[in-house]
Please model this.
Amino acid sequence: MAKYFDVHPENPQRRTLTTVADSIRSGALVAYPTDSCYALGCQLGSRDGMSRIRSIRNLDERHHFTLLCQNFAQLGQFVHVDNDVFRAIKAATPGSYTFILPATREVPRQLQHPKKKTVGVRIPDHLVAQALLAELGEPLLSSTLLLPDEDEPMTQGWEIKERLDHVVDAVLDSGDCGTEPTTVIDFSGGEPEIVRRGAGDTARFE
Model:
């Protein structure tokens, strides 16, 4: 059964976040809130976590996982960013965007797109997600909590706990965080390509 943590949205309890971060380091798969919608997260490099996310969401090998990063300095360790792309991404973060970029050697091979050698990265504009990343001290391997054959992600922590009780290890609930996933921008070819229109405004990339 999944552990359920009720977290204050503006003043998250550090003891709770430390407990969740420790569980992630020990291999736990967690459901947690972001600035776009709830997501599934596990430790970077966790093969079991990746496999479980793929199973829950019915994803194939071509799916781009996302590295949820605390800040730009952390993001820069895992993707190659030239000056023009840096400025474009810097202006849009933190926010509800996922950027697809060429991966550095820091990114485990199994996380990279098998042909493009790219990975998704993002910096959330969400207090609880940021506090969790601060406790974890490294990016969180992440994927939108959108179940197969459903049009919208789940928005209520208690519902996630109820429906995914036996397939996730913990649910971090800080209230409703919306239903729209991130806007996905592919910069791997140099110029921005809008892959998915979501919560982030696409005007700056068109």
Q: What stands out?
A: The first strand starts at residue 3 and ends at 6. DSSP finds six helices and ten strands in the chain.
